[in-house]
Write a structure and sequence with these properties.
The chain is mostly helical. The N and C termini lie far apart (39 Å). Helix 1 (2-16) packs antiparallel against helix 7 (84-112). The chain is 80% helix and 0% strand.
Length: 180
């Protein structure tokens, strides 16, 4: 469940960080700009074994999920238009929380595998991986649906193509002036 929640958060955040359409970055530039999340996830995962011994797995999971909440609290009052520096702070905060939460939940799952009969050991890994992928998918779907509804409600009077998607708005040229 921890992996599901953590990946739901990062999937939603990566959707909201529509660096390509909103800020006009190329796919390569947008990819490079998501590196703070990956690096922060690595950094967040490194102290996890020590923290698990010191304060216990439940506290580390709570700390990680708290980091995800903190990331969204930083994102909530985002100025318009959002600068990349602001986006990077959000990505780092979410990455640190993900690193703590996912590493801990995977560690707890792996430590539980010896209690599972050998013929069912693969199921434990499958549950973890399913939660990982389901979390990202639900994060994108849930926040994507909410974002789409809010977006359409804020573009009255625009060409139909611009009302249908951010990409359509971008192709009409209406978003470019707003995003710069």
């Amino acid at each position: 469940m921890t992996t599901l929640m953590a990946m739901l958060a990062i999937g939603a955040a990566l959707f909201l960080m529509s660096l390509r359409c909103v800020h006009g970055y190329s796919p390569f530039e947008a990819g490079l700009r998501t590196l703070p999340a990956a690096i922060a996830t690595l950094v967040g995962s490194l102290p996890t074994p020590w923290l698990m011994e010191w304060i216990g797995p439940r506290a580390v999971i709570a700390l990680g999920l708290g980091g995800l909440v903190a990331g969204f609290l930083v994102l909530a009052p985002a100025p318009e238009p959002t600068t990349y520096a602001y986006v990077a702070v959000v990505l780092v905060t979410l990455g640190l929380g993900d690193g703590l939460a996912i590493t801990t939940s995977a560690s707890v799952l792996v430590s539980a595998v010896p209690a599972v009969p050998a013929e069912r050991a693969g199921q434990a890994g499958a549950v973890s991986e399913t939660n990982f992928e389901l979390g990202v998918g639900l994060g994108v779907a849930l926040l994507g649906s909410i974002h789409g509804a809010v977006y359409v409600s804020h573009v009255p009077g625009q060409p139909q193509l611009a009302r249908e998607s951010i990409g359509g708005c971008w192709s009409c040229g209406r978003c470019r002036a707003v995003s710069r």
